[in-house]
């Protein structure tokens, strides 16, 4: 499979997203329950709602697309545009909602998932949390992050109907689709007084729900993704369509202008719960698929019944190859989980080299911030650890999921180390890594060296999103072990880590052979590298 500029394939991107969706307490954490706020005070003080911020971020990123020119769309250019007037949204902490959104994603960042894919995934996670009945929005992987800001052009509430229609048309959306997009987006969240005092504050509905927040909600159910805003608008009940309909400041009545631009035909057609949900899943998917020309998106990601959460090869001190990891299943797609998971190791001809059985399954805790988060039902994980015979090229789990295994060349985590200097303030400084890797001696040459690649989330100017940096280093021969030659090399992090706790990976290459990437982070218990104070001694 083709690799992107970060050295990542589409399959790796899909699997990384599936792994997050099937790990309760990760990407669902900041938006569960739907009224949760990750970064500041509770909703009843601040009126900040992370799920609403994540959904709004999709709009502000994609809408400046120019589909005819093939530019813009969902590309994380929004990360460079947080200070613009048209992206106004100040949180309780005084930050831009865009920066808080991206820093939230950075908690889970790794080279496999671009910030633009996180923005798309954030919408899926928000819908999972705000409407438990929602099937996942059609979510593809593969968006490429912009390296700078895009053009201006996010419609503001004071803009004319024509200018809003023009912006949507440029992004490939008809008038009807614009109405649908606005109605779907404004099902959750609010308009905040801190951002729009000319809207919130001159209206009798101010602070109706929840009281005292300085936030005026779009409908009576701001924590539920549903058709209430449309219904209340059409019937003149409850919030009557929310502040962008009811504000006495006529210029700012953008939802009213948009909804009635076709005599309410479009909103009427989406007033039932089912038609609202179906319409919104279609229109959200269209927003997510609006990407710069030439971007290859994957098939829709819906976590497969069985996947691995993590796998890696290793070499015992006596030179025996070991393969271990974690398997995961979800009850929604796979039904009741068996006590253990079964799998076979296959050779390149498809014959079985060895059969195996995992440890007993462990039901994952789906209690996230005090509520049960089970968009994929119960999740069960199984660990496994095997010695594997020569010639194995893949593992097939539960006759359902296959993963490649490259025994020719691999990083040896149990013989690799991290030196993490500590800053005077006690925080971790820039770390160095001693990497050992194994290459089948039969494939090696007398002068062979390996090229290692270290994948690192660097800071970039003007955006809090990480810029993935690839640092290469050379590994030279150290010794032989069993049928393998061990190579050794050292790499130092190229600089300061982007905000958040993103994960690093390392892989090695010999001519056209490339190993799998292995997690090598200094601050995660999931890392397999040992700690070492003096790398010359490890
Ligand atoms: C002409 C188009 C649109 C205009 C003028 C508009 C305007 C606004 C305004 C003024 C706010 C209040 C922001 C704040 O005070 O924090 C807002 C919030 C919001 N908008 Fe829109 N919007 C438009 C389209 C959309 C679309 C297409 C979506 C769909 C993704 C969307 C999703 C949201 C969400 C979820 C919020 C709530 C944010 C929060 O509670 O923090 N909007 N919008």
Structural summary, described in words:
The chain has 538 residues and is α+β, with helices and mostly antiparallel strands. The chain folds into 3 domains: 10-288, Peroxidase, domain 2 (Orthogonal Bundle); 306-407; 410-537, Immunoglobulin-like. The protein has 13 helices and 22 strands. Strands 13, 14, 15, 16, 17, 18, 19, 20, 21 and 22 form a 10-stranded mixed sheet that branches. A 4-stranded antiparallel sheet has the order 3-4-10-7. It has a 4-stranded antiparallel sheet with strand order 6-5-11-12, with no helix packed on it. A hairpin with a 5-residue loop joins strand 3 and strand 4 (321-330). The chain starts with 9 loop residues before the first helix and ends in a 7-residue tail after the last strand. The model has no long low-confidence stretch (mean pLDDT 93). The structure holds protoporphyrin IX containing FE. Residues 49, 52-53, 55-56, 58-59, 89, 97, 155-157, 164, 181-182, 185-186, 188-192, 195-196, 254 line the site of protoporphyrin IX containing FE.
